[in-house]
């Protein structure tokens, strides 16, 4: 019965290997429960391991009982020999079963799947540069320094950038966003920077999808928005982050998205009006809001932007009469970059002063 002892020792060895594998799988699942696609298969494997554990314990108990009986009897009857042979056979079969069970779980695959290439935490917007336009660049400096000083540690911080439509809010926000994305690791105060552009159709789930994608989370399609919010909140719990939400026009409940009180966050909103109530609320959570109103470009910057666009056709701006009309048109634009760009693109190929006078007349009467 030499195999009996060898078999038991091998069974013990396989059991320990299975338990070590089980521990590793549980650790990976605990750290990445919402990042791997085949969670159900892993859980099923763990259930099988648990079932086998009870069967192994039963075999071990029977083996020890047999060895104790042998010692007492100082010999073996035919019945004991047959029982021992059956037990040894079951131990052999169990050893094979455990080895096969270990092969069923591909731990390296789980690790690779649960730790994919890190998502890009800083995705630039490709903002229109405003270095040549001091009146817009001043707003950039104010907002950038405000966020840099706070760097996410003011736990309930919100900045509202507001002003008329087309005044340059998005341009300023995109420049600040991209500048933070360009900071090196040693200078970067944030772990992740998000950008969300709102539309009438975009709801909580759409915003959550943007955050999930940048965080590398793989949400189950069957999950409710509430469940997704819990996962996002958990992922952001120990992160310092900056969230830009542009073109805000209606209420946004940040809690429903997964943005929670006590997290190290800065939220920057771009909207056409500034509201001092808690319209963009968090179910009673207190915000410390700061407001920056964008007034528009000064006349020199506005004219510079206009000429920069029209000068793509250099012959147009050689006409002195057109130069004078251009100045009058820019004044009618009131420092609104969107209006300036629209008119400039419409006139950049027009070399007839009469067309320019007509455009000025239409603009003045609109």
UniProtKB/TrEMBL annotation:
Keywords associated with the record: ATP-binding, Coiled coil, Nucleotide-binding, Plant defense
GO molecular function annotation: ADP binding; ATP binding
Organism expressing this protein natively: Malus domestica
An annotated GO BP: defense response
Gene3D superfamilies in alphabetical order: Helical domain of apoptotic protease-activating factors (1.10.8.430), P-loop containing nucleotide triphosphate hydrolases (3.40.50.300)
InterPro entries noted in UniProt: Apaf_helical, NB-ARC, P-loop_NTPase, Plant_NBS-LRR
Protein name in UniProt: NB-ARC domain-containing protein
Parts forming coiled coils: 1-69
